[in-house]
Amino acid sequence: MLQHDGRQLYYEVSGHGEQPLLLFNGLTMSTAAWTLMAPLLEPRFRLIRLDFQGQGQSERRVQDSYPLTQQADDAAALLDHLGVKQCYLAGLSYGGMVALHFARRHPARLSRLLLASTLAWSDAANVYIAQSWSAAQQAGGPGLRFDISLPWLFSSRFFVSSAQMLPDLRTIAATVDWPGVERILAGIREHDARSWLDEIRVPTHIIVGSEDRLTPLYQSELLHQGIAGSTLTVLPGAGHAIHIEAPAAFAQQISRFADA
């Protein structure tokens, strides 16, 4: 646990490589959600994972929202705590939004930035999707919320080839602290990086699944157009939750960009 700003933040460090790789979680993820990715990355990197406020084992301060800027500053405090001056940062979905704010607020701390399945801004469609999840949680609990979220998270191919994973994913979804997620969602609604993407000067790579319905390709194209020198890769046939659906391809993209 890291004691920071009167709160406890949970983190993990693993791996055998010298290069620090900071991984930022998606919305309902925790450090445990990188289980399929970690063995693919640990031989090369020193992995640093943390639960943002509102996630996993980190303390949940009661407040109206968890701003993206606060989450970014918490991560910078963790790097200070670990004595890491500079790292490679990969952010997935919500973690990609936090990563954008981290890159703006703490540019000297980054050597490379990888943005995966994320948003340049929270558009009207994203707001309505979040509202539908909240309504499902209220009407039918985590089971209905999980069912409502499925087509947003995975590709058609995943439902055919990996349906056996769904019961376990449903069980995991039921453990999520929804009041914490609501505060995270409130922070997301304020997200709009379009006007300051040109301030991000760190080498940046963007990836998105061709079947990502939650953070669609046009959002990644906005990021690509706004961040000078950035590169963009579309993963064929992949949906949104690439850490579950396409962990090998995701890890390969991270490793390749480390060598670029």
From TrEMBL:
Keywords for this protein: Hydrolase
InterPro entries recorded: AB_hydrolase_1, AB_hydrolase_fold, AB_hydrolase_sf
Coiled coil: none
Ranges of residues in domain AB hydrolase-1: 21-252
Taxonomic lineage from the root: Bacteria, Pseudomonadati, Pseudomonadota, Betaproteobacteria, Neisseriales
Protein name (Swiss-Prot/TrEMBL): Alpha/beta hydrolase fold protein
Domain of life of the organism encoding this protein: Bacteria
One Gene Ontology term of the molecular function aspect: hydrolase activity
Gene3D superfamilies: alpha/beta hydrolase
UniProt-listed Pfam families: Abhydrolase_6 (PF12697)
